[in-house]
Amino acid sequence: MISHSLYALNSLTSIGNLAVDEAYRRRGIATKLIKVAEKIVEKWGDKYLFAGVDCTNEGAIAMYLRLGYKVVLDERDLINRTARGIPRLFIMKTIAS
Fold first, then answer.
1. Contacts of 70 (CB under 8 A, 6+ apart)
2. Radius of gyration for the alpha carbons in the chain, expressed in angstroms and rounded
3. What is the Cα 8 distance to its own chain's centre?
4. What is the CATH number of the domain that holds 22?
5. Domain that holds residue 58
6. Are residues 23 and 30 in contact, defined by beta-carbon separation less than 8 angstroms?
7. Structurally, how many domains does the chain consist of?
8. Are residues 36 and 75 in contact, defined by beta-carbon separation less than 8 angstroms?
9. Model-level pTM?
10. Is 52 exposed, middle or buried (0-12, 13-18, 19+ CB in 10 A)?
11. How far apart are the C-alpha atoms of 7 and 29, rounded to whole Å?
12. 75, burial (CB in 10 Å: exposed 0-12, middle 13-18, buried 19+)
């Protein structure tokens, strides 16, 4: 799922709930989905693509970093974390200038 919003006068699109079934992982499916999302964001004229990833999901974190995303917030650094219990990394990539 991708959603599109305006924050601080900059267009920001977020990726939410991206998952690939275990039987199909390590085949590039998530990478392809992210690249499609990036093309959609570019078509919309948005500037940034943003996602939250559980800190324990090393595979997803490595994928996003490999695709050029940067960590913009690490919930492990926060005193008041979300009620979910698992801290997240918030990552973002500039899509259009």
1. 91, 92, 93
2. 14
3. 19
4. 3.40.630.30
5. 4-94
6. no
7. 1
8. no
9. 0.81
10. middle
11. 29
12. middle
Task: Please give the single-letter amino acid code of residue 6.
Answer: L
Strand runs labelled E in the chain: 2-7, 10-15, 48-54, 70-74, 88-94
Distance, in Å, from the CA atom of 42 to the CA atom of 36, rounded to the nearest integer, reads: 10
Q: Distance between CA atoms of 18 and 27, rounded to whole angstroms? A: 15
Alpha helices in the chain (DSSP H): 29-44, 58-66
| Full pLDDT tens readout for the chain, 97 residues | 444 454 444 678 888 888 899 999 899 999 999 999 999 888 888 889 999 999 899 999 999 999 999 999 888 877 665 556 788 899 999 997 5
